[in-house]
Design brief:
The chain has 103 residues and is mostly beta strands. The chain has one domain: Nucleic acid-binding proteins (OB fold (Dihydrolipoamide Acetyltransferase, E2P)). Helices cover 4% and strands 43% of the residues. It contains one helix and seven strands. Strands 1, 2, 3, 4, 5, 6 and 7 form a seven-stranded mixed sheet that branches.
Length: 103
């Protein structure tokens, strides 16, 4: 369970469903679910310190693709529960997984 891995290096894989900004605009989230649940695991990019290849424009083409995030997990308290966030510091932390057709 990811909520028990706070501060540890993890790898999380799934389809990137959406990208959205926090209410303040300071964080860009990579979402594995369109449902926006408060406890859903997500990648997070700090906009102020992010390199250009972690901008919304650069990451939008990844929507709909299977991705693997490599990073440190931080458990964020949210409305009486917790949400696992993988801090993304560079583009190398996001791997696109190409699936073979298996023919």
């Amino acid at each position: 369970m990811l909520s028990q891995c706070n501060g540890k290096q993890v790898i999380v894989e799934g389809p990137l469903e959406a990208i959205m900004f926090s209410e303040s605009g300071a964080t860009l989230y990579l979402l594995f679910s369109k449902e926006l649940g408060k406890t859903d695991t997500r990648g997070s990019v700090i906009v102020k310190t992010a390199p250009a290849d972690l901008s919304e424009t650069s990451l939008t083409p990844l929507i709909g693709k299977q991705i693997r995030l490599h990073g440190t997990i931080h458990i964020q308290p949210v409305s009486g529960t917790v949400r696992p966030e993988i801090k993304i510091m560079d583009r190398a932390s996001i791997e696109v997984i190409e699936r073979s057709s298996g023919g």
